[in-house]
Structures are given as structure tokens and as C-alpha cells.
């Protein structure tokens, strides 16, 4: 058995070894995958593997095992490759069978294309990008943890650690200043965001890496999948473990395009754009040959990923559940402060943040809870600060300032580019459970052009049906999604929403900015971590309604309708049921109790009366 | 492009079947050409050409094992070919015969059928030539439904008739349906699929023999080429795998890009600079072996390529994308590269849906031409042999559903079983959008719309097509899940379109002419209505649609066509679409005191084109509330599986509808037509008692359509009385909801047909008369103040008179040419 170092540093050695041992059947392929799965199961083993998200590419050893936390942005066509091939040594004329799996380029020696023993196999390529909108704290924590684990092996990397630490410090510092910058002039920044994308980042080149969100950083990656690729879907979050391939020969091909096209007419059939999109230089877009991938339910590094069901995770979960209620009340206080003393809005925000589409009945997504917080102060950077606070709490989020310029210019809906044969991403291509923060206070009067109308429609569809219609030029294709949309606006939002809460501040601090800062700073990071865990756990709980409660709810509804049929419609009942569901989950209760139902009703009543009052106030205005 | 200078030598060559005479068990070594070059290429194997084995290695970059194929002039087939005088044409789609990789003699063919191409290869292919001939001579398909065979006698051998056609038309292409071959001779079929490169030339030869035997004098541009199509079942692009390489496949998809025409050299012409001796070299896998020495004068490196005497063929790259229907949810569509050759070039345009039959190829890519390292990935493409546009058939009317989904036996029997159940109608309607509560009749209406009536063609008698599609309008309070119903229907039907009245323009609905930025060509882009031909167009917020946009619908909803006259393009497109529209009342809430027309403010000309108009209102009754609450609560805790059990699967429903639409064409039986007549007469009678007309022929047509659709639901070929009963009931339900006069409580169809109930019309006349009297009583006044007149009339009349009513009365009098209204003055004439 090879040592730890071997399977991380030279996984291909393991693969070749298995192939040499047993080259008759297809058994060896399974064995290899099993081997790596076993290895990774060992406690903490996953953190020994260097992560492509964290370590800059040039510090990583080619053909070593790496991991990459990513989202599938595009799926390319399946490709056929030489699974097994035979090489001829020109000097001795002896033939050797070799395995082509997990490799991009054949090994040395003349390849015999006519060999009877050759096996053609199929694999699929995914274009993966880091999870869009991943919060800074997620990155910090996940890679901080990785560093704490004593890495017994991987000397080349450890030597680089110091470097890389500096590097990270730098980026962090940059980010911080970028954030503060954002506070002041967020609007300007937003409008500049697209251009920022082009500005030289870590990978300075004019190659568009096709990140869904402008201003994103990190490596994009071509992940080669060898089995079960039908199980993956677009926008899935994955933790990929695989063999890094950055063979310079791949880049050479891109450079030598001109020369080769003259010689091989078939090559010239691909356009330059397509070449660039599908085989970008490996130094910018490395290849990972997937050995094992873990689908991620969430990207919260504070929790064990959902798949591993060992005892540790269970214990952890029960621990969280036991103190769920206390965390909730602390959280509520915190958010109430943020909402300037409005506890109802804070309650609704909690419900919103733990909402998630849990099922779809024909076309109707169930469990979504789009919140519209109206009555936000327009002049102050309140909304930006609110977004920052949310960013601190959820693993991934994105803010769209709905300024006219943004609406008219941003590419929200992903579009298929047929010349380059790839899916050009848009800001609405987001992973599951991303928080989308729509700032409508930035919207001014003016003309929306065709793009603007399309964007608004897309946002509307996203909110109502939790789907985005990707534009495939000749047709549209519907991709279901699960995005928590929070709209902040002055009046009622022009976009549809499940629930509108009008903000009613109880206090008006003289300096809003200062106030929010102090509230924020008062939260210790351990406290924040508790909140973060709280959201992820509460969201994933199961839920049901007992027959008894069902009866009670029915009675209630009939009763309410009796008094005034106009006041309560089927839609209201829908909403009340969602509120009741989320309310129960927020207390960690997995079935609806009477109290929660009554509480949900009361909350709804309060909320509705508030909006109605607001209407009256507005109506009386001269 | 034809090859004008095709020599006799070439003819012999390409008409020659692959005949590897070498018994040599095709060694593994990559030195395929050594033994054969001498015979093949009439040039000396100088060290120059033969040189480095790497060069040869280069040329052997080909998907299948390369094996020498000898041109065996003694092959009996050569002599048999009676293609006197007619030049053969190379078939780059098969790969020119010479470079065709031969079947590996030692390995078993993939799908069994090992009896083909054993050692005595010539003999075998001759035998298969005979099989092919037998097939062509004898195949009869009496049940053919394809439109290509429209005017042929179905009881005569099909392909012999097609040869007849060729002799008349002169188009030397014979399309052969592989399905026919399969039913006739399964072995032959298997060979065709596995070894298309060998079997298709055999077919070519057989056809030419037959043809020139029969029509020895006919003149064709080149020899007949056989183009098989419909290989195996039509496959999904996703199911292609390495085993399909070099096999004949048919896949469906959508063309997304076509390249420019690429001239591909087939034969290079070299002339010696010294002695002017010329020689031809055939291109082998994209490479030309340039002769290093002139054979005539033995000068080295004196041969120069003469471009305009070389032979080229056309080639085009086409990108094909999976059709959206075939795709699993949540994945992106795959694409494949297709090469079209010769006359198939420019046969398809981007956006076309096609079935392509061709040979699947794979070739390795090389990292660097000067390196031996190879990228371990193959490039794949399909050499197209046959295109079949799937949406072209729309032009042909009746049979368009031939692209039918193929149903498996079990599926069909399952569907039939379902159809035999007495409550199938209720079952299906409850399976429709189960998350939407109740509204049974509306769901039933939509169900019938999904099935549609029977298409009738009266164009012979001058009336044109009768509309078979059922149009439905839903109106009602906001928040009564109208949009959700629309979304559901849109997701259910294969050719559904969903638009919102607010956002769509007339152009977006119909079609617009666009200049392609690349080709500067005018392209007709079709809008939602045309796209949903044979489907359902769901229009939300129908009331918010602008008038000009709505006017487009008039033609679509009755004539089922769309006329376009724009930028020099004048055409009429089919838009046989059912329309499912949803409208909100003008005053956000439905006003029960007003008529439908008043509530939704739509022109009655448009409304009368809807077969069914439903109101979706909040019923406000306790029992209903209770059931609704239960339904909603259950949505929130039932697991997915429980629901599946309760209702019919959406997929089953889809298949059921597709099957019924394709195979069931009910006709009215005698009793049913009697029942229809009675129903219609009854409807007329109801109104006549009160001096109103309550039914028009349009309503009769609606009834017929509904009855037919109901018969389709039962999988019945006859429309029976029960169908008529249900149609009547549903129609009455819809009328009761939408055409009830709120003032009298009677059903009054004229609300929908004229936009005004009879009583309202009567009152309008009364007001006008009163006004006229008032003006006359004032004596000779040429002009009056508008406001004053209004006040006078109000003072005089007992009933309250609104401004609207007054305006209407004025308008009525204007129409009588009694007065004119200019601004605020009223002038008598």
C-alpha cells in the first residue's frame, strides 16, 4: 500500500498500478475509485488534500490530488478518449498497453491507433467555477481550518504556506478595504463592477472565465467526469476530488492553432472562440480528472457536509438542535437592533433566511418565501449595511442594485453563445440557497429598454416560479432554482413577493451608520458562527402537520372566511401555512403545533394591518 | 458540385465495392499500405513517398483500423455494373471507397450477424447485393403513411416505383427507409447498420443495375446514390456512445450553426514542370501524397499542383444540438458536429429541426503535428447521408404528427386500459394541475382543449379548413391561480408557448423579418403564435394587451393562419394553435353587477372566438372553504410519493394526450349529429322567446369541437351522444358563468357576440329616442351646449342617466346623421 504521500502526490501512480495489476477487466476502474473514497473517509483526510480554491495554481504540483469546491456552470459535450491504448517503442519495437484514464495527453511513445486492444471510452467535461457569491467568512473559515490540521505530508506545499499566507492576508486586506469602499460608494462600485471583471485580477488575461457574478475571483476549472455524469445537474455545488492536470502540451495546442489548422483540415472546423472556450490554456483553467465528487447541500464550513452520516455529525447536530431556541432569541435581538427596533421585521427576516424550496407540485414551488421589506430609508446607505449584515450570516449571497443603469445593462439570464459553444453566464445563475438581495431603493424613474424589461421579467419569474429561463437563442430552457430573494424598497416593490413587511423603526439614532456599526461589532465572532450554523440547520429540518392540526387549520380558515370572505383568500392561507412552517422550523420543531399556528396567524395579522395602515397614510397624503 | 472530368478510372473505382482480397488477418502493425501501394497507386514507391513510417502513421490517423483495400478488377461486380455512360460520383459521405476501412475479419461484428463478410468477401458482398436487389424489387408496404409515398400505388413494390420516379424526374437519389429493410430482411438491416460503408455501396450498385436494366436509355447526372434513413430507432444524441462509431445512426436535433461551404479536394492534379507529364493523386484522409519523382522524366521534385484541374467536392460543417424535448431536466443540451457533402450542403438552415442519418466517426487529435504525443481525446462527427426536416411537414397539413412519439407496446396497452375506464374523463381532469383546487369544469374545458377537435378540410368546397382547436378564456379575480393553470398547461404540452399580454407586441406574437448580420440575408423570425403551431399558446394578462396586438389574434383564432407582409416578404404562416388566455377584470375585482364584456373590456369580436369563457371566482361558501383549506394544508405536508399515488403522473397524461391526438380521429355518428342539431335548436329557442338570439353557428361549431374532443378522451373513433351531452353541459356551464345578463339573470349570448345584452341595447335606444325628442322640443336651434343638453335630459328623464349613457345616445344620433358633436357643442344637421 502506498503511503499517504503517494496517494496525494502521485495518484496516477495508484491508477497505473491498479491498471497494471489487472488489465483484463473493467474491475480496476472501480477499485481505483473505491481506493480513493476509502482514503478520503479517514478522519481529516479531506483536509490534507490541497484545495484549488485556496492555493494558487502555480504552487500546486501537477498530477497531484486536489480538491475544488465549485458550482457546475456549463456542461460540455461528452468526449471520447483512449481508455486503453498501446504504445510502440520505436527502438525496440515492443508494445506496451497503457491506460488513458485520468489523463489528457498520451504518455511518451508512438501510439498505435490500430491496436486491437485499444478501448475507446467516454467522459464528460463540466466547466466549474467557484461557488458564486460565496461570503468571505466561508472562505476564511474553511481554509483556516485546513491550516490548523497538522499537515504531516505534502512538503512542497508546506514550504509554500508562508507565501500563500501572505498572499491571503493581502487579499483579505484588499477585500476589507474594498468593503469599506463599498459602504461609501456602493452604487458607483456596482455600476463599475462589469468593468472590474476585466481588470487584471490574479489570473491576468483577457480570457473571460465566465463567472456568473462580476468581480469574482478564483480559478475556473474543467472537470472531467468519468462515471455517473447524468447524476449531475447544472448549478450543482460539488466538492471535487481529482487529479490536477496542467500539462503545458494542452496550452501548446491553443497557441499552435494556426500552424496545425494548415495541416489538419478537420481542426479548422472549430472556431477560434470555441477553441478558447473549450480548451483554454491550462495555466488559467486547469483540468481536474474527477476521482470522487461530493455533492454539497450547503457550503457552510461550520457544519459537516450533509453526506457524511457518521456519529460525530449526529452528535454535532443534536448539540445544535438543543440550543436552537436560545440562539434564535439572541438572533432575534440582534436583527431587531438592525431593523431599528422592529421585531416583527426581524422575525420575518429569520423566516426568510431559513426558507428553501422543498418540493414542487406541478409548476408550483413550495417553501419559497420572498420577503419585501418596504419603508427602508433611501438616503442613507442603510440597505448596503443591511446587505453586509446578511452577508455575514449566510454562506453565499449577492446584491443587485436595481438602478436603471444596472437593469438595462446587466446580463442576468445566462445565454448560449453558439459561436463559442458555451453557456455565457449571467447574474441569475446561482447555486441553491444563495441569498439574492435586491435593492430597489436605487431604482429611479426612467426608461427601461428591452434588456431591462427582460431582466425584470426574469426576476419576476425567479420570484414567482423559482426558475430561470436560460436563453438558447432558438428556444428557452427552464432551469429550476432555489434562491432566497429579499427585496428592500421604499414603497411596495414592483416585483412580486410572497410577503411584504413595512419597516416601522422604533428608534431613530442620529447617526444611523455609527449605530449599525456598533451593533455589528457587539457580536462576537463565536456568536456569528452560532447564527450561521442556526440558519443552515433550521433550513434542513423535516416538517409535517398532524391530522389534528390540519383539522384545526381548516376550521380556522372557514371561520375567518365566515366573518369576511374578502379578507382571507386562498393565497393568504398559502402564506399563513408557509409562515407557520417556517416559524416551527425556526424553533427547531418538526411538526406544526397549535401555538405556532396561532402565532403565525398573529404575525400575519400584524403585518397586514401594518401595510394597510401604510396605505391609509399614503392615501391621506395631499 | 459535380466532378466534370471524372475519368473512367475513377468511375470504376468508386462504383467498386470494398473488396479486400487480402486474406491476411489484418495485422496489427501500422504498415497498411506497403503491400498495396504498388497496385493502388500507379507511381513508383520511391523512398520519397514511402519514406518515414511516421508519415504513413500520420495518414492513418483514422477512427477505425485501417486496412488495405485492393481494387480487384476481376471482381464480378465490376462487370455486372451496367452503368454505361453514366458517371459515378464519389461519395464523400461514406468516405471515398478506397479509404474505407475494412471490416475486421477476425472480430465478431458488434451486433451478431456474423455471416457477412467472412473470408470470401467479394462473394459475400455480391450476395448482399442480391439481397439488396431482392429487397428493392419486392418490398411492398401497403400501410405506408409517409407523405413521400403519397401518389404511389401501395400494392406495388415501393422502391421500383421510386426508380420510375427517378427516371422521370432525373434526380439520382434513392431514399430508403431502414425500417422497411428491417421488416423485409433483418440480417441485411443489421449489416447495413454495422457496416454502412460497405453495404451502402452494395446497395448503390444493386440500384444502378436495376435501374439501367429497366431504363437503359435514361440519362442521369450521375449514378443513383442510395440514402438510407430512419436507422434503428431515432436516437437521442445523449445515447451515442463509443460503440456507435462507424455505424449508421439516425439522431434528431436542431441545427444551430452552419459553416461556409468548404471545397474539399478529392483528387489532386500534378504536372511535371519539366516534361509536362501529368498525374492524379487521390486525397487520402485530408492528405495528398505529393509525388516526389516524375514518372516520365525521373526528375525529382518537379511535380507541381495545378489547382484548377484538381477535383473538389463541397463540404459543410453543421452543428446540431439536442432538441429541447429530449433533454433531462437541469442539464445543458449536447451538440454534435455533422459534415454534409455535395448536394446535402445548404439543405438545412440554423433553427431547423432535423433527423440526420449518417455514419458516426471519431478521429484522434494531435497535440502538435510535429510531436508524437497525442491528446488522448477523439474528435467525433457525423458524416451525413440523409437529412429529414421534422418541421417541414407542417406544410403538408394532415399528417404532421407523423413525427410521433413512438409508444412502446406496454405504454399503448396501458393507455388503452386507462381509456377503457368509465371515469377516464374525470380522472384526467383531476390529474390536470392537481395543486390547483377544484374548478372542475375549467379543468375539463382545458382538458378538452388539450385534445382538440378533429381537423376537417373543406378547402375543396371553398370554405377552407375548419378550426379544430378550442380556445378558452379564463377571467376572474386576481389571485385565483389563473397564471398557475396557464403555467401548468404550458409545461404540459410539447409545443406550448407562454407570453404575457403586457410584454408582448404584435411582432412578438406573429413573426418579424430580421437581417442576419453575418449573411445579410433576410430571415423570418417566428413569434409565439407560429411557434405554437399544433400546440397551445398561453397568453396571460390578455386584457393588458394593446389593441394592435390583439387584432392579430382575430385571424389566428378563426382562420388559423397568419398573414405577413413585411420587408418584401409576403406570406401566410400556419398558426393552428389553441389559445388559452387569462384576463383580469378592469376594476381589479370582478363586479358581479356588470357583464363579462364590461368587466374585462375586450372587444366582443374577439370574445366570440373563444369556445369557452370561464369565470374563476371565489365561490365564498363554507363547504368549499373547508375543502380548499384541507387541500392546501395537505400540500404542505404530504410527501411527493403520496401525491404521485393519488393522481395520474404528468408523464402519463402527456402520453395519453399525445397518443389521442395522433391516432384518434373521431367522426360524428348519426345519433350524435341529431343530438347536436337538437341542442342547437334548443339554444336558439331559449333566446327567441325573449326576442333575443342566444346561439349562432359559431356556437354550434364549438359544440362539435367539444364533442369531438370528448370522444378523443375516450379513445373513441365515433362521436356519440354522451360526448354531445358533455359538450352541451360544459358549454352551458361556461355560458352560465360568462354570458349571464346581470340585470335580468338570463343567459344571453348576445353579450358575447355583440358586446351588449339585449336589454341594454333596448335601453340605449330608448335614451337616444328621448334625447331626440328633447332636441326636437327645443325647436330650431342649430347648436346647443353639450353640458346643458345633458342636464336637460337628466332633468327630464325618470331613470338616472349617466354621462356614458348620454354619450352613447349622442353617438347613436350621430350615426343617424341627425347631429354632430364637435368639442362641447352639439350641432343639428
Automatic annotation (TrEMBL), chain A:
Subcellular location: Nucleus
Entry superkingdom: Eukaryota
Keywords for this protein: Nucleus
One Gene Ontology term from the biological process aspect of the record: DNA-templated DNA replication
One example GO MF annotation: chromatin binding
Cellular component terms (Gene Ontology): nucleus
Coiled coil location: none
Residue spans of biased composition, Polar residues class: 193-205
Name of the protein: Mini-chromosome maintenance complex-binding protein
Automatic annotation (TrEMBL), chain B:
Any one Pfam family match given in the protein's UniProt record, by short name: MCM_OB
Biased composition (Polar residues): 46-62
Recorded catalytic activity of this chain's protein: ATP + H2O = ADP + phosphate + H(+)
Subunit (UniProt): Component of the MCM2-7 complex.
PANTHER family from the UniProt entry: DNA REPLICATION LICENSING FACTOR MCM FAMILY MEMBER, DNA REPLICATION LICENSING FACTOR MCM4
Enzyme class per UniProt: hydrolase
Gene Ontology CC terms: MCM complex; nucleus
Keywords: ATP-binding, Cell cycle, DNA replication, DNA-binding, Helicase, Hydrolase, Nucleotide-binding, Nucleus
Organism annotation: Pygocentrus nattereri
Main localization category: nucleus
Record protein name field: DNA replication licensing factor MCM4
